[in-house]
Design a protein that fits this description.
By secondary structure, the protein is mainly alpha-helical. The protein has one domain. About 80% of the residues lie in helices and about 0% in strands. The longest helix is centred in the last third of the chain and has 27 residues.
Length: about 200
């Protein structure tokens, strides 16, 4: 990890986007070594969301610096792009605790205060399902997508929500594996959101 931090820092200096890199390194230290992942589900979700935002801001800064003529006027493009990045941060902040649903036994043994352990498994599942569907519609509307393009985030979001709610709490090995698969589908859903600007009608 330390070697990767050094490589990332040097690369960020070379590419001209150092602030997001430093931010991500500080968040990583907070999460892994300063109990950021342990004491509060709100802090845990915030660090995850801020980490995603740091990755995306760094890439956006480099992209805008090297492709300034892609958006006319640039100010409009930049404002929309940064608004979109903060939407993505909101997506992560309100749904990333899906990763904690299959890990409740281990997190409970470690004394972690993850959202499923604080508000209960049932409520945590519904909170993710509702927010995933809500953000899917927000994202499709933000980029004024047609019906076909909207199916990508909304369809994947519906699969995540249905899997979470339909199966409910099941601490068996089979149930845990299902929840882990749902988390993987959630990751695919998040990736699909990153593609939506490319699907915006001309």
């Amino acid at each position: 990890m330390r070697v990767c931090y050094i490589i990332a820092f040097i690369s960020s200096v070379a590419l001209g986007s150092i602030v997001p890199c430093i931010s991500l390194m500080m968040l990583g230290y907070w999460y892994n070594f300063a109990n950021g992942a342990e004491d509060s589900f709100a802090v845990r979700n915030f660090i995850n969301a801020a980490g995603y935002l740091s990755f995306a801001l760094g890439a956006t800064e480099v992209g805008l610096r090297n492709s300034a003529t892609m958006c006319v006027p640039l100010e409009t493009c930049t404002r929309l792009g940064y608004n979109w990045l903060f939407v993505l941060a909101g997506v992560v902040f309100t749904t990333v605790h899906i990763q904690d649903i299959p890990d409740q036994k281990g997190d409970g043994a470690r004394g972690r205060k993850t959202l499923p352990l604080v508000i209960g498994d049932h409520s945590a599942r519904w909170s993710v399902g509702v927010m995933v569907l809500g953000w899917s519609f927000v994202a499709a509307r933000m980029w004024t997508l047609g019906n076909a393009a909207s199916f990508l985030p909304i369809g994947l979001g519906a699969i995540v929500a249905l899997r979470l709610v339909a199966w409910g709490n099941n601490s068996s090995d089979e149930g845990i594996q299902r929840d882990k698969m749902t988390f993987r589908i959630w990751n695919i859903w998040v990736i699909s959101l990153y593609f939506l600007p490319l699907l915006k009608p001309a």
